[in-house]
Amino acid sequence: MAFADYPTAPPHSDVRHLPLLVQLHDWVVTVDHKRLGLMYICTGLVFFAVGGLEASIMRWQLAFPSHDVVAPEVFNRLFTMHGTTMVFLFGMPIILGMANYLVPLMIGARDLAFPRLNAFGFWLSLFSGLLLYFSYLGGEGLSGAGTAPDVGWFAYAPLTERAFSRGYSTDYWILSLLVGGIGSVATSINMVTTVLCMRCKGMTLARMPLFVWLLLVVAVMILFAMPPLTAAQVMLLLDRYLGARFFDTQAGGSALLWQHFFWIFGHPEVYILMLPGFAAASEIIPVFSRKPMFGYAAMVGATISIGFISMGVWAHHMFAVGMSATANSFFAASTMLIAVPTGIKIFNWLATMYGGKIRFATPMLFCIGFLFQFLCAGLTGIMLAATPFDWQLTDSYFVVAHFHYVLIGGLLFTIFAAMYYWFPKATGRMLSETLGRWHFWLLVIGFNLTFGPQHLLGILGMPRRIYTYAPGRGWELLNLLSSLGVVFQALAVLFFVWNVIRALRQGALAGDDPWDAWTLEWTTTSPPPEYNFETLPEVRSRRPLWDVKHPYDPDWRHE
Amino acid sequence: MLFTVGSLGAVKMFDNCERILYCRLTPWLQTRRTGPATSSINAGNMDRPVHLSNIFDPVSTPAQAILELSWLVLWICAGIFVIVSGLLVYTIIRFRRRRADDDEPPQVYGSNQIELAWTVIPLLTVFVLFLVTTRTITAVQHTVPSAEALLVTVVGHQWWWEIRYPALGIVTANELHVPVSDQTQPLPTFLKLQSVDVVHSFWVPRLAGKTDVIPNRDNQMWIEPHEPGLYLGQCAEYCGTQHANMLLRVTVHPRDDFDRWVAAQQQPPVHDPSVQAGRDLFQATACVNCHTVQETVANGTFGPDLSHLMSRATLAAGVVDNTPQNLRAWMRNPQQLKPGNLMPDMKLTPQELEHIVAYLVTLQ
């Protein structure tokens, strides 16, 4: 291949001594999947900090009844920006970044199929985020209404129509998601093509690491889920500026139409965010249990079923809109059905650990935290799938608790697991285990303290998205506990930041394969050279490094 | 996590403990409140009893039907939690790596029988859950109004509730009054839900699940309360700046009490000659464009009907108690009590304000 004679420097060469401007220029013009992956991840982490700050202000406001920290419209902007940021500017970039960095390394490829399309996708993502946050400066427009958008992250019509959202803030929201969505679709096409066409010799679909399988399903899901959102955003823009009447109820439009469009995107989106978490867990749990993934085929099958079923559950977000009993029953059934493949996954991870020799390194700790917390999230999910129970729980703090157990307890914990696991590969240095344990335990305590009590707040009738509440409803103590948890979570994140900075400066050298792992990314240097592999590898099983390390009992004899 | 699921299971006990706990803690928590702008006005709230809106303490037929299903789902989920987390804990402890043991454990790749088992058992569980769910959905959704049922129309506005009793000729706001229903004389109340602007959601947890209030669409729900009392709820779908202060109060009356309330509401507004100056002023300002006082020129429908204003317990959709003092503060600057609400500051002089307040407090 042409890549072979590409002039590249070996790792740790004198690249670091180039002038800063040249180095920065290199990052801006790069089409290397690893650099783009790291930039995706860094973008995600910066927006994670911003979104977390927004959440902290909200929790400070809600810590006491009738607490007056921020004005109502400021609070409404905060939860809109928090939701949009965490889903579109933290979740999406970080999973696409992980995919970008790891998929080519895991399938023994030199880059993604379309490196320049990849760079295009990243820059669209970044600028969609900057566009959204520019609304704080530009959203006021000429009519003097609002700065950042304050319509909630699912922006239910007709609140987004110009009659109710004056100024330009909602337009920033629309355009930002439109731009980001195009970026995600571009990257997904790239990912699907890469996985299908660029696997190294011997890597059949059945020998791909589970991580790659799950990301393949995610990429396909993005291709199906994003277009409805993009279409809805275009329709909303037409409504706002060209007098279309799709969602304008005062002119005969339909408020429910928006909800259907949004959730046809929105529910698959939950799995788009969650499956990469499962993907990381499916790599980490086997390595630290010292056993291959139990039921590889079942895991792949379960993932594909989740992909399919998730396209048919969207209206469980709409149980309270007054659908017919038949529609309500259908969506209850499909939603409960998705618990089956999800359960299979949990059982398979459990079976992988069973009979192993579990090493409790930080990545594994985060995976174990994930298993417990995601179990809770799944079970509250079943409660919400029971339509009548949902009539009580939806739009209450119970739902807030539920999806934070999914997205923090589930996704964020696996993202941190992945960070600790692959950081040595990306930087060549180990993160500190001691600081990692502090990070883990503070986050476990803080997270459960914040979101555990919120289940009970929902049961006691506290609706979500309220900027204040009067005393005397029984919500004071639980809200205070919930806000206290934020302190622990913030400390945990600080430990992580400290750990990363410390490791970059003086972390122990990692070597190629610090975890004694089995997939291809551990065969190359840490960090990998620009061309990834000196010679393209050839595999005979799902665990090529196991075969190398155990030549007398290789995997390919058993698979 | 155990904390969460455990507390869910014990929520009935929790309910009682909480009442005690909050009675003790509430005064302390209230002293922590800040916000000088509102604290003096909210002072009336201090002595209010704790009003829990616990969905596990229903007093109305649909909420009870939901709770029966909820307990079943909850127990099944609790069972799954105990089994799976128990297995996890066992695995983590039993199969931890011991010191100086670097041998690889036996490599197990999977087992079709086991995979089949943990596919089929969840499938059966889900099937059972689906059947009981559908039964409750049908029971709640397919109930049709009986001949004697009370029909009420609830209209969502940014950020208050308009409540109309078409058969009784009553229009009020934010406070729904319904008769109690008992087994000898069932008397459910059916609510037709409409919105004039954006999506809201009607939720009084102890009476029924929530139903969204959607513009350009008629939704329906019903309640059948068995115990007289005051039940609190509020808008549950984000609807703009003051979503948090779109509160609902449902008063369930014994039959004769309800009849008295109806009779009082059906009276024409009080015409007190001593407040003629205030009445004239009210009718000469833009107040009448948004508010109705029956049998006067005031026939606006954008804001709440004021014909029997003082029969209501709260102002501004539940933000403060309805006292002359709060009414004055509200009219002097509506944006202070409920920032962002759609009632304009009428720029009344202090004297005009006194006249209009004097008039309004006669509207019993």
Structural class of chain B: alpha+beta
Quick check: average pLDDT of chain A? 93
Shape verdict of chain A: globular
Number of strands of chain A: 0
Report the CATH architecture of chain A. Up-down Bundle
Overall radius of gyration of chain A: 23 Å
Q: For the largest sheet of chain B, list the strands in their spatial order.
A: 3-2-1-5-8
CATH fold name of chain A: Cytochrome C Oxidase, Chain A
The name of the CATH architecture of the largest domain in chain B is Sandwich
Alpha plus pi helix count of chain A: 16
Beta-strand content bin of chain A: under 5%
- Number of helical runs of chain B? 11
Summarize the structure.
The complex is a heterodimer of chains A (559) and B (364). Chain A is mainly α and 559 residues long.
In words, what does this structure look like?
With 559 residues, chain A is mainly α. Chain A has a single domain (24-557), classed as Cytochrome c oxidase-like, subunit I domain (Cytochrome C Oxidase, Chain A, Up-down Bundle), CATH 1.20.210. Chain A has helices at 20-29, 33-62, 72-106, 115-138, 169-197, 210-242, 255-289, 296-309, 325-337, 339-353, 362-385, 387-393, 397-427, 433-459, 476-506, 544-549. In chain A, helix 3 packs parallel to helix 5 (169-197), helix 3 packs across helix 7 and helix 5 packs antiparallel against helix 6 (210-242). Chain A is globular, with a radius of gyration of 23 Å. Chain A starts with 19 loop residues before the first helix and ends in a 10-residue tail after the last helix. Chain B has three domains: 2-98, no CATH class; 150-266, Cupredoxins -  blue copper proteins (Immunoglobulin-like, Sandwich), CATH 2.60.40.420; 273-360, Cupredoxins -  blue copper proteins (Immunoglobulin-like). Chain B has helices at 2-9, 11-31, 36-42, 61-94, 112-141, 255-266, 276-284, 287-290, 324-332, 334-337, 350-360; strands spanning 150-157, 160-165, 170-173, 175-179, 189-195, 200-202, 211-213, 219-223, 229-234, 247-253, 314-315, 320-321. Chain B has a five-stranded mixed beta sheet. Chain B has a three-stranded mixed beta sheet with strand order 4-10-9. In chain B, strand 11 (314-315) and strand 12 form a beta hairpin. In chain B, helix 1 (2-9) packs antiparallel against helix 4. The radius of gyration of chain B is 27 Å and the shape is elongated. Chains A and B meet through helix 3, helix 7, helix 8, helix 9 and helix 10 of A and helix 1, helix 2, helix 3, helix 4 and helix 5 of B.
